[in-house]
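FORM 7B: Structural annotation worksheet

SECTION A. Query
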Amino acid sequence: MRGFKMTFRGKDYYMACTSGSTGILVSNKENVMRLLCDAMDMEGNYFQWMTEDLYADDEIIISYEDFDESLLTSPLREKLVKDEATEKRFMLSIYQQQKEQLIEQGY
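SECTION B. Predicted structure
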């Protein structure tokens, strides 16, 4: 399987999607730098491996590799396309997680 190997804070992440897009994104919202790693396959299934705040001395090492599928990091969150009720539950879980993060940050 071809995909990305990323080392972040001493941990290796193996991320890939057999047919679709895999993304490693750095965002800056409200002066908070975040590292996001996710993928979406051609059927609309979604996988998220990480979402972490970034700090000044963080080091990120990324390489594109051919690795055994058994090394693939288990997603923190995934959404498999099934039906509308599943979609609504998934969106609600994302909302709840983001709400908790904002409350923890004092918003």
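SECTION C. Observations
The longest strand covers residues 20-29. The helical segments are 84-104.

SECTION D. Sign-off
Analyst initials: ____
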